[in-house]
Each structure stands twice: as structure tokens, then as C-alpha cells.
Amino acid sequence: MNNFHCYLPRIFVNLLSKMTLHPKYITSSSGKKQAVVLTIEEYDHLIKELEELEDIKLYDKVKSKKESSIRFSEYLKKRKSKKQ
Q1: Higher pLDDT residue, 15 or 21?
Q2: Per-residue DSSP letters for 42-78?
Q3: Are 53 and 3 in contact (CB under 8 A)?
């Protein structure tokens, strides 16, 4: 999880360089912000960035286990031989 924090700034720098957000705030009668409205394009972009961040987090988690690895093609060969 520590590596997760290392990637966070890069993701948001990329986000800001790719798209400028124009949030609209819904406020209470006292002026307190209650909700945010984004365009579909802004929302989709944020979701894409969050999914990328989740992928990076999962990658870091797997890499931190320091387990041995094999090529995907080798895995498929082993899997196929086990089915036969």
C-alpha cells in the first residue's frame, strides 16, 4: 500500500493535464456544499483514472509478495496439460 501513495500524485497530475474539471456545487440554504455535479465526460474521465489507480494498487500488492512468476504462455501450457 505504500507504493500506492507514490503513484497518487502522478495520477492526479495526469488528470489535470488531460482535462480541466468544472464542478458545479449544490449548496444548502446556508451555503454549505452538499453535492457536486460533473459533466458525463468529466465523470467518465474520473472513473477511468480511479480504475487505473486501482490497477496500480493491485499490481503493487502482488509485486510486494515477492513470489516467483512464470510467463503467461507457460501458465497456459501447464493449465492445458492438467485438463488432459
Answers
A1: 21
A2: HHHHHHHHHHHHHHHHHHHHHHHT------HHHHHHH
A3: no
Encode pLDDT of 49-71 as tens digits.
Answer: 899 999 999 988 988 888 888 89
Rg of the chain taking only CA atoms, in angstroms: 21
Beta strands in the chain (DSSP E): 24-27, 33-37
Q: Say how far apart CA 80 and CA 60 lie, in whole Å.
A: 29
Q: How many residues comprise the chain? A: 84
- Contact between residue 22 and residue 39 where contact means Cβ atoms under 8 Å apart: yes
Residue 35's DSSP bridge partners are 26
Which residues, other chains included, contact 61 with Cβ-Cβ below 8 Å and sequence gap of 6+?
1
Would you say 3 and 60 are in contact if contact means Cβ atoms under 8 Å apart? Answer: yes
